[in-house]
Amino acid sequence: MAAVMPLLTTKGLSRQFGGLRAVDGVDFALMPGEIRAVIGPNGAGKTTFVSLLSGRIQPSSGMVVFDGADITTMPAYKRVRLGVAYTFQITSVFANLTVFDNVALPVQRTLTDGRSKGQVRTSVMAALERTGLADRAGTLAGQLSYGHQRLLEVAMGLALKPRLLILDEPTQGLADSEIDNFITLVREIARDATVLLIEHNMPVVMQLADRITVFNAGKILADGTPEQIRANRQVQDAYLGATHG
Amino acid sequence: MRDASPAKTYALHIGVIVLLFALNFVLPDYHQGLFARIMALAVFAMGYNLLFGYVGLLSLGHAMFFSAGLYGAGLTVYHLGWGVPEAFVAGVVCGALLALVIGLLALRTSGVAFMIVTMMFAQAFYLLILYFAAWTGGDQGLVIQQALRVVSIGGASFDLTDPTVRYMSALALFAIVLFVTLAVVRSRFGRVLVAIRENEERTKMLGYDTVANKLAAVVASGAICAASGAAYALLFGYVGSNFASIQYSILPLLWVLLGGAATTLGPLIGTLFMYYVTDITSGFTSAYLLIVGVALILLVLFAPKGIMGSIRERWLGWLP
Question: What is the per-residue pLDDT across A122-146, written as a single tens digit (0 to 9) for each?
Answer without folding.
Answer: 989 988 988 889 999 999 999 998 8
